[in-house]
Every structure is written in C-alpha cells, then in structure tokens.
C-alpha cells in the first residue's frame, strides 16, 4: 500500500504532513511512502532525510500521488481554479485523504464525487482517546507561544521589570483574551517573560485555569456564561447582550494594557469581535495587539488578516495568519505525530491497511465522505 505526502502549495503554509521520524514508522507498518520533492524544506526536513528514513522522493505531485491509497496533507488539496497544480484531480479514486481540510458542504461534495474517502482531523471529538491526535490543540499550543514572542518583539519596551542605575522600566501589562489551549500557553509564556498578566474567557471553567497560571481574571459573569461551554470544551456563541456587557468590562481594562493577545474562536463560525475600534483608540501609543484568530476573521475589528497594521494612535495590530506555521519545524513534528497516531490507532496489522470502523466516535467525528457519499451530518448539503 502506498502513502503519499505532498508539498503544501497554499500561500503562507510552511508545514508538512509527515516528518522523517513518522516516515520511518510508516515504513515499519509496511507502507511504501512517496514524498514530493521539497515538501519538508520549509520545515527544515530535506529530501535526503526522507530518503534515509525509507521514503521514495517523487519529482512532482503527480508522481507522488500515482497509485497512492493514503494521502496526507496539512491543508485541503488545491482544485483546478486554485493553483497551477490540480491536486484534487490527481488523487486516485478510493484513496484515503487525511488532513485539516477545512471542509464545507461543497468541498465535501467534491471529495465524494471523486470517490475520495476524506477525513478532516480538525473535527476530531474532544475525548480522552483522541487527545494524541488532536491537531487543533497541538497547533494552538504553539500559536499561543509564538503570539507572545512576536508581541514582545513588536512592543517598544521590555517585558519584565528591569531595575537599572539609570532608572526602572516597569513590567509590561499583558492581557490574554480567550483561555483555551492557545490562551493558556500565551498566559504561561507571558508570565515566563516577566509580564503582569491578566486574561478573560466566557467559559466558566477558564477562570480557575487562568488563576492557576498566576494571571488575574477579568470578565463579566452571569447565568448565561455558566453554560458557555460545549460538551467538547469549545466556547459557545453567546447573546449580543452578554457580549455587550463583557465589552464594557474589557474596555475599561484594555486601555491600560501594553500587549493584548486575542485567541477566541468559536468552532465552525467566524471569530467573535472582542476588541472594537473604540477600544483600540483608547490604547497607548506603542501598544500591541496580536490576533491569533485572524484566520477566522479576527477578534479585533481593525485586524487585517495576513498583515501588520499600525493605527493612527500608534497601536500595532499583528494579524498574521497560520500562527503555528511560524514555528514550522515544531508544528510539523506535532502535526505529523497526530496523523501517525490516527492511522496507527485504526491500523489492521494483518491486512497492513487502515480499518476505520463506522461506529467509532473518532471515525464518525472526522469522516466527511465514504463510498462516494457525504456522511458527516454537518457537511450534508
């Protein structure tokens, strides 16, 4: 059985879906691994390292995908109207495609039409068995770290308090908005850098998590916020009234902050706007807003996804996309292990092939298409 790994061609994507470490383990399972030449270069993995691990280095996407029965990707394959290479058309009928596919009903339908068995790993359920294959958590953890590092770099003063003979530089005030995986890592990183850290989140469990990391909690709490978390641990979309009251509390706090890191996401929806233009206008010149949610539209009203913006009052807004991809070696290593864990969990040793039982909760959660049909409830048109 052949497994193919492609070069990621989408703009700004630096990661790769397999590393030499995971390739060696795939070969150990009995798979023939083909990796497109140059696929790992941006992550620090040269072709020679893959060849040494047992992979065949293919000259292009067509060669890598020829006869492939398993295809690993970071992001969805490009279609005919998206790039010079129509990756989707090159994937053999019946192949198992695994990646963070960001699928909607139309894309799921395209996979089904081509007979591709598509698994979108960002849909994995938040259950104990799936933790080691949770691509959202592995990548968000790195994104939270990188956000604080870049925020500290953009900030025009030091992060820790520095006492010198010439005077004292006060510690930076860092405010983390959202205390999920990315937010908690951002809190920990900002604390390690010596900042005075505060954080907010609508989920009731987050308050104690924030405090346990040594940060102070900021936020509005009412009966609605007590039910602000899904069974899977994600934040729910709340009412406009709640967000208005939350905004009042945040507005008074944010004016005093030096670095604000926005991490709030609602699964499957545009990121909520938490920092308004008026809040940005109230901030001091030289302050920094880092918007990790920029891929989903951004938590700041003035974020321009993919860009660094400096406002009229001197506030820097870092709206870079693919934050985990700004640490490509680490992000690829963790992502590749997530995919390896998924495949080995459902590996049939006798058949030397993956076996995905339809009744399994993880399989049900990630499977978009099977047998030429869209099977995921949220993807059916």
TrEMBL record:
SUPFAM superfamilies: Formate/glycerate dehydrogenase catalytic domain-like, NAD(P)-binding Rossmann-fold domains. It is an enzyme of class 7 (translocase). SMART domains: AlaDh_PNT_C (SM01002), AlaDh_PNT_N (SM01003). The keyword NADP applies. One of its GO terms (molecular function) is oxidoreductase activity. Keywords: NAD, NADP, Nucleotide-binding, Oxidoreductase, Translocase. Residues 152-319 form the Alanine dehydrogenase/pyridine nucleotide transhydrogenase NAD(H)-binding domain. Transmembrane segments: none annotated. Residues 4-143 form the Alanine dehydrogenase/pyridine nucleotide transhydrogenase N-terminal domain. It catalyses: NAD(+) + NADPH + H(+)(in) = NADH + NADP(+) + H(+)(out). The transhydrogenation between NADH and NADP is coupled to respiration and ATP hydrolysis and functions as a proton pump across the membrane. This is proton-translocating NAD(P)(+) transhydrogenase. It comes from Neoroseomonas terrae.
